TrEMBL record:
Motif placement: 'KMSKS' region: 291-295
Biological process (GO), any one: cysteinyl-tRNA aminoacylation
Protein name: Cysteine--tRNA ligase
Location in or out of the cell: Cytoplasm
Length: 485
C-alpha cells in the first residue's frame, strides 16, 4: 500500500526555451504560479475558460506531487486595450461608455460571472485573486524604478524602450511581418515594439479610472499590471507563469522586458531575469470559423451549454481529452461525446460502495496509477490520464474501497468531482424543454401501469410522445430516462 503518488519527475513545456524541462522549484518544496486572469469587460467565453482549466490542472498536478502551491490569478479591471499592442481604447472604458455604466459596476458584474464559471468547472480557488486596481501604487513605484534607464516619455504616456534590455521578444521569437503589422505606430516611438507602461489621459478628457503619477494623470499599461502583481505576490523569480497562446506574442514578452529591467535595477543583470522560470501557454479553443473571441461579438458562454442541457463538467472533460498545447475544436457532437464519457465514468464510480475513501492504493492498481502519474508528469497529458482512470475502473474482482482509493487519487488531478457527482446530477433540463421532470415521472408511472396490464399499445404511445418531447425512455436503467440533447 502506498499513499503518495508514484514518483515521476514533472516535465513541463517551457515556451521560453521551446523545450520540455524537468520542473525544479525555485524554493524547495514550493511551487509559485501566476496566471493571467480575465479582463472583466464582458462574460468569459468557453475558450477563455480553457485557459483556467489548464491552469487548474497544472496547479492540481503540482499539489498532487506534494508541492506547497501558491497560485495567483489576477483580475484585469483596467489597462487592457482593444488591441494587445498599443492601439485602441481601454476595453473597460469602452464597455462602460457603451452601457453608460460605471466601470466598477461592470467589473463587479463580470468578475462574478467569471467566478461562477470557475466554480461550475470545479476550478480550485487560487491563493489570491489579485485585482489590478488594488496595486496602482506598486505599479507607479515599479515604473519609477525602471523609468530612467528603460523608458521615455511621449505626449501619450511613458514608453518602454525594448532596445534597452537584452534579447527582447525571445519568447515570441516571431518578429514576423504579421506580428509587426499588428503594432500600431505611435508618433515618436523609438522602436516599433515599444509599449506604454503608463497611459496619460489625453488633455481635455477624463477617464473613469485614472490616477496621479510622475507622468501625469492616467492609467497603467496592461503589461505593467501583471509584472507588478506577479513580482509582489510571488517574488522574482517565481516558478511558472501561464496564459493563453496569444499572450506569447506581445503581453508576455513585454512583461518579461519589464521584469528584466526591474531585476537589473536591483543589480541582477541579463536575460535570465524573466521574472518566471517557466512560461506556459494553452492553445486556443477554436470554432470552424476560427478562434473563439469576445471581441468578435457572438461567443459561447458556459451558461449556454448548461441551458442546452450539458453539464458544465462535460466541458471540463472535453478540455481534458485534448492536450493543452493542441488546438481544440469545439463542436456540439464533441461536447455530447464528452458528456457521455463522463456519465459512464460516474456510473462506474457510483457502483462502488460507500466504503471509506483513503489515500492508500492497492497493488492491483499500481500499473494504472503509474501510467496515470507518468502521463500527467509528461507535460500534463490528461488524455492518457483519463484512459488510466477508465482502466482502473474496469478492474474486476477487487474490493470497492480499493478502487475508490485509486479513483480518488486520480480525481485530485483531473478535478471531475467524481465523488460529488451523480448520474442524475449530470441530467440537466434543457431550457427549451416543454416537460417538467414531475410530468415525465407521472407519464412513466402511467406507462408502467399500462405495461403491467399488458396494454402495450398505450405503453408504446406514451413512450413515443415522450420521445417527441425530447425524452428518452431507458427500460432496465435505474435512472429510467434521459433528455435527448
Ligand atoms: N479561444 C481561446 N481559447 C483558449 N484560450 C483563450 C481563447 N481566447 C482567449 N484565451 C485566453 O483566455 C484568457 C483570458 O483572456 P481575456 O479575458 O483577456 O480575454 P480577451 O483577450 O479580452 O478576449 P478575446 O481574446 O476573446 O477577445 C487569456 O489567457 C487568453 O489568452
Ligand atoms: Zn497578464
Amino acid at each position: 500500500m502506498t499513499d503518495t503518488p508514484p514518483p515521476a519527475d514533472l516535465r513541463l513545456f517551457n515556451s521560453l526555451t521551446r523545450q520540455v524541462e524537468v520542473f525544479s522549484p525555485v524554493h524547495p518544496g514550493e511551487a509559485r504560479v501566476y496566471s493571467c486572469g480575465p479582463t472583466v469587460y464582458n462574460y468569459p467565453h468557453i475558450g477563455n475558460m480553457r485557459a483556467y482549466v489548464f491552469a487548474d490542472i497544472l496547479g492540481r498536478t503540482l499539489s498532487w506531487k506534494g508541492y506547497d502551491l501558491t497560485h495567483i490569478i489576477n483580475i484585469t479591471d483596467v489597462g487592457h486595450l482593444t488591441d494587445d499592442a498599443d492601439a485602441g481604447e481601454d476595453k473597460m472604458e469602452k464597455m462602460a461608455a457603451e452601457r453608460s455604466q460605471s466601470i466598477w459596476d461592470i467589473a463587479k458584474h463580470y468578475t462574478e460571472a467569471y467566478w461562477a464559471d470557475v466554480q461550475a468547472l470545479n476550478i480550485r480557488q487560487p491563493a489570491k485573486w489579485s485585482v489590478a486596481t488594488d496595486y496602482i501604487d506598486e505599479m507607479v513605484a515599479f515604473a519609477k524604478g525602471i523609468a530612467d534607464k528603460h523608458c521615455y516619455e511621449l505626449e501619450s504616456g511613458l514608453y518602454f524602450d525594448v532596445s534597452s534590455i537584452a534579447d527582447y521578444g525571445r519568447l515570441a521569437r516571431a518578429v514576423t511581418e504579421d506580428g509587426e503589422g499588428r503594432i500600431d505606430t505611435v508618433e515618436g516611438k523609438r522602436n516599433q515594439a515599444d509599449f506604454a507602461i503608463w497611459r496619460k489621459t489625453p488633455a481635455g478628457e477624463t477617464r473613469q479610472m485614472e490616477w496621479d503619477s510622475p507622468w501625469g494623470r492616467g492609467a497603467p499599461g496592461w503589461h505593467l499590471e501583471c509584472s507588478v502583481m506577479g513580482g509582489k505576490l510571488l517574488g522574482f523569480p517565481f516558478d511558472i507563469h501561464t496564459g493563453g497562446i496569444d499572450h506569447r506574442e506581445i503581453h508576455h514578452p513585454n512583461e518579461i522586458a519589464q521584469n528584466q529591467a526591474h531585476c537589473c535595477a536591483g543589480g541582477l543583470d541579463s536575460a535570465e531575469n524573466s521574472g518566471a522560470r517557466i512560461w506556459m501557454h494553452n492553445n486556443f479553443l477554436v470554432e470552424r470559423s476560427g478562434k473563439m473571441s469576445k471581441s468578435s461579438g457572438e461567443f459561447l458562454r458556459l451558461q449556454l451549454l448548461i441551458d442546452k442541457g450539458y453539464h458544465p463538467l462535460a466541458y471540463r472533460m472535453m478540455c481534458l481529452q485534448a492536450h493543452y498545447r493542441s488546438e481544440l475544436e469545439f463542436s456540439w457532437e464533441g461536447l455530447q461525446a464528452a458528456l457521455t464519457r463522463l456519465k459512464r465514468i460516474v456510473m462506474a464510480v457510483e457502483r462502488l460502495s460507500d466504503a471509506a475513501v483513503g489515500d492508500a492504493v492497492h497493488p492491483k492498481f499500481a500499473p494504472m496509477l503509474e501510467k496515470f502519474a507518468a502521463a500527467v508528469s509528461d507535460d500534463l497529458n490528461t488524455s492518457v490520464g483519463l484512459v488510466a482512470l477508465e482502466e482502473a475502473l474496469a478492474v474486476k474482482k477487487v474490493d470497492a474501497a480499493a478502487k475508490r482509493a485509486v479513483v480518488h487519487q486520480m480525481d485530485k488531478v483531473l478535478g471531475l468531482n467524481l465523488f460529488g457527482l451523480s448520474r442524475e446530477a449530470l441530467r440537466i433540463r434543457p431550457k427549451a424543454a416543454t416537460l417538467t421532470e414531475a410530468q415525465i415521472e407521472a407519464e412513466l408511472i402511467r406507462r408502467k401501469e399500462a405495461r403491467a396490464a399488458k396494454d402495450f399499445a398505450t405503453s408504446d404511445a406514451i413512450r413515443e410522445t415522450l420521445t417527441a418531447k425530447g425524452v428518452e425512455v431507458m427500460d432496465g436503467d435505474p435512472l429510467g430516462w434521459e433528455w435527448r440533447l
